[in-house]
Amino acid sequence: MKKERILLTDCQKIKRILVTRMQGLGDAVCFIPTLRILRESFPQAEITVLSGRLPAKELFEVCPFVNKVIFYDVDKERNFFDKLNFIKYLRRQRFDISVASSYEVGFALKAFLSGAKYRIGFSQHVCNGTIARDFFSFLNTVSLVSQGNENEIDVNMRLLGALGIEGKECKLDLWVNEQDKLFAGELFRQHALTDKKVLAIHPSSNNESRNWPLEKYAQLITYVLRHYEVKIVLVGSQAHYDLNEKLCALVGGGITNIAGKTALSQLMEVLRGCVLFIGNDSGPRHIAVAMGLPAIILFGPTIYKQVRPYTENCIGISKHLSCSPCDQHNCACARCMQLITVQEVIVAAEYFLDKIGIKKIDS
Q1: In which element (H, E) is residue 256 found?
Q2: Of residues 109, 129, 83, the one with CA closest to residue 20
Q3: CA–CA separation, 95 vs 256, rounded Å?
Q4: Count of other CB atoms within 10 angstroms of residue 154
Q5: What is the pLDDT of residue 207?
Q6: What is the b/e burial string over 103-124, where b = at least 16 CB atoms within 10 angstroms of the residue's CB?
Q7: DSSP track, 278-320
Q8: Phi and psi of 256, rounded to 5°?
Q9: CA-wise closest residue to 284 among 21, 24, 53
Q10: List of long-range contacts for 315-320, beta carbons under 8 Å, 24+ apart
């Protein structure tokens, strides 16, 4: 029978830990509590994160719980010799423990070949009713099973249970430095946002099926600007700049598009200066929640229970259709997002604006 946990008789002997988290920015943010508790439990160990996407890599590089980041681009094609050289590189690091998050199907073999003495991972991951199995999971010291309806933070915390670590707080953390604060202050000055009540809106994502219609965002923004003394900034990556510009044109002015103008840590500080975040289910919404910003998140094809915000300072709007969750990238109708009404989002926005003391004015 497979072990459910590892009994470490002397944690001080653990010198090097490899943590694998290959997904994007939002998943990286959700993994921070696990990293924090690993650092608290193994203060003497060198913790290395294996990351597969650039925004997540950027986050891990500023994480104080991490000593080193290895970037292994998941979108890059590799031949047999490239993969072999990568395994050789991992073996040279002499890891004591390998910890692979719930989505890392296929990494049990890499963990075994890395030479790590203790290997913790998942034998399968369940997403939208589809089971992805790791057929090499028998090589793990401990193999867990993702149930598919657990919050992602809770799933990752079960990895710690396999190390005998229990009862820790699932708190999100993010970090900025003085340079980021100076950058955000200058950006606010350039766009006349200093000392203003600023709403951040992220109307895009890397999955088109998660996008609320642009016309509805335009109606929402027009209403908010008419009834509240606030400023609005549109955030996102450089890839989202043109879509944000289309939204600016629909609204007809009065909003600022800063997509692509901020590094990740700079975006964190910009969001810290805002009073409310509204957006689709994507990386920036995880940052907003982690920064403690009141947030309204529009959910469509994703598993709501799995990705729901770990805070009461957030309103998630989802239609919970029979066809959801499907997690399709290019759904033909995307009814789950189309059916979210502007009025629903306005009601949520007015709740938060009233809560933070921003009163409605006559139109």
Answers
A1: strand 255-257
A2: 109
A3: 47
A4: 14
A5: 76
A6: bbbbbbebbbbbbbebbbbbbb
A7: EEESSHHHHHHHHTT--EEEE--SS-HHHH--SSSSEEEE---
A8: -115, 130
A9: 24
A10: 315/348, 315/351, 315/352, 317/344, 317/345, 317/348
Would you state the pLDDT for residue 168?
67
CA atoms of 278 and 196, how far apart (whole Å) = 17
Location of structure tokens 């590799």: 78
Residue 88, both tokens: 């050789």
CA distance 255 to 251: 8
128 vs 307: CA distance, rounded Å: 12
Question: How many Å apart are CA 349 and CA 352, to the nearest integer?
Answer: 5
Helix ranges (H only) for the chain are 25-41, 54-61, 80-92, 107-114, 152-161, 178-190, 214-227, 241-251, 264-272, 283-290, 304-307, 335-338, 342-355
Residues 247 and 171 sit within 8 Å (Cβ to Cβ): no
Within 8 A by CB and 6+ apart from 69, the residues are: 48, 49, 51, 57, 60, 61
For the stretch 154-210, pLDDT in tens is 788 888 888 888 766 677 778 888 999 999 999 999 999 999 999 999 998 877 778
DSSP calls for 8-72:
-S-GGG--EEEEEE-S-HHHHHHHHHHHHHHHHH-TTSEEEEEE-SHHHHHHHHT-TT-SEEEE-
End-to-end CA distance of the chain: 68
Conformation bin of residue 142: beta by default, left when phi > 0, alpha when psi is -120 to 50: beta
Residue 89's φ and ψ, nearest 5 degrees, are -65, -45
Token representation of residue 205: 């994502």
Give strand pairing partners of 298. Answer: 280, 317
pLDDT digits (tens, 9 = 90+) for 14-71: 999 999 999 888 889 889 999 999 999 999 999 999 999 998 999 999 999 999 999 9
Check: CB of residue 82 under 8 Å from CB of residue 105. Answer: no
Percent of the chain residues past pLDDT 70, beyond the cut: 86
326: amino acid identity, one letter: C
